[in-house]
């Protein structure tokens, strides 16, 4: 979190382990693992494919990036920005 504050919830369920994850319509169907408020200088680690929710509490600037521990090559589409 660079600027501002944001509220985060991370759930115990993984999207790849829930059948038809697109039918989850209410977060009450999920089990909360942890929640926190990020302030400038804070960071959060969310395990791959975990359901999570982020809500800005004010204007914010943050940076997100994926960390992969897989040894298999990933076929990704790369786009060039002009």
In short:
0% of the residues lie in helices and 28% in strands. The chain is an all-beta fold and 82 residues long. The mean pLDDT is 80.
Question: Helix and strand layout, with pairings?
Answer:
Blueprint: E1 6-14, E2 32-38, E3 50-56
Antiparallel strand pairs: 1-2, 1-3
Give a verbal description of the structure.
It is a single chain. The model has no long low-confidence stretch (mean pLDDT 80). Strands 2-1-3 form a 3-stranded antiparallel beta sheet, with no helix packed on it. Helix content is 0%, strand content 28%. It is mainly β and 82 residues long. The two termini are 27 Å apart.
Structural class: mainly beta
Residue-averaged pLDDT, rounded? Answer: 80
Principal-axes geometry comes out as globular
Could you give the order of the helices and strands?
EEE
Helix content bin: under 10%
Low-confidence stretches: none
The value of Rg in angstroms is 15 Å
Give the N-to-C terminal Cα separation.
27 Å
- Strand fraction band? 25-35%
Number of strands: 3
Kindly report the spatial arrangement of strands forming the biggest sheet: 2-1-3
Q: How would a textbook summarize the main sheet? A: 3 strands, antiparallel
What is the tally of helical segments? Answer: 0
């Amino acid at each position: 979190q660079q600027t501002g504050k944001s509220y985060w919830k991370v759930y115990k369920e993984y999207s790849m382990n829930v059948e038809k994850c697109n039918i989850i319509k209410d977060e009450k169907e999920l089990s909360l693992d942890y929640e926190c408020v990020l302030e400038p200088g804070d960071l959060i680690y969310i395990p791959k494919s975990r359901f999570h929710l982020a809500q800005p509490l004010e204007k914010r600037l943050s940076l997100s990036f994926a960390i992969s521990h897989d040894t298999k090559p990933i076929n990704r589409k790369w786009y060039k920005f002009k």
